[in-house]
Amino acid sequence: MSSSAPSSSSTAPTASSVPRRVLDWRLRFGLLSLVWGFSFLFMKVGTESFAPFQVTLGRLVFGTAVVAVAMAVKRERLPRGTWTWVHLAVAGLLLNALPFSLFAFSELTIPSSLAGICNATSPLWGMALSLVALSEDRPTRRRVAGLGIGFLGVLTVLGVWQGFHGLDVTGTALALLASLSYPVGWIYVRRTLAGSRHSHLSLTGAQLGLATVQLAVVTPLFTSVPTSFPVLPLLAVAALGALGTGLAFLIQYDLVAEVGPTTAQMVTYFTPVIATAAGVALLGESLSWSTPVGAAVVLAGAALTQARPRSARGGTTPAPAAGAPTGVRQESRV
Fold first, then answer.
1. 150-192 pLDDT per residue, tens
2. Radius of gyration of the chain (CA)
3. What values do phi and psi take at 329, rounded to 5?
């Protein structure tokens, strides 16, 4: 539930080209997993007092503010060019405004743990769409098998043999549509902004800003001003934006720069585990056997879809993070 993140390059940077960080990359990797995993809990708490559009607008405001501060510190300028802004507006819709809103609406009726697991299907949707939309992304038997295994896991999570008994179909469908919106956005960005001369930070700041404007227009049309601002839900929305969107982008930006996209994108497989644990432990959500078993199958399938064929020299070609283009990597998780 992806904060915006940097481009995935074809090779990981060398140690000499990466500035020394205060925290070891493993600690930052763990922090990013926690932040994205808890984002689903924050959304659930936020929607208890605020409308889904209000939660999303608050998230974008706080997230954009964090990125704007980072841009100011690094003296980054906003991108230029009319078409660049048009493409970023579409990216902001597909990668931020739409999926964030869909997840918020879904959590009105489904547990945060189920929303987190639905989010893990993004690599599956991405692989299926890339086979159709990206001619350079050729299928392999392993990746096709991963796609089939992953969707078998989805059916397990949903309890298809029980006829979806006890499952809110609408809420689950909204969460799955949110996870589908990410790869649609990635493919769009790959086709329109690949190789941009603007920095990742600059592009993401503009994208989040445009998504914020979109929600600022839509929210008043469908909601009324809250009559109260309870502390806990308000803190949850602030954490969702500042941590789950703004800080998460900055952390993943550093991770990709230091350890490469293949390692950095592994955070995807920890997020639903943390989301499920947080929902059960802190919100008292129920958990049947099919949920963790199905989630494990989904993650196994997703891992296979990200596999790349071995190179001629016997090595492995690193997988780009969720189909991101060289030059820009957009928001991919909660």
1. 888 887 877 766 655 667 889 999 999 999 999 999 999 988 9
2. 19
3. -130, 130
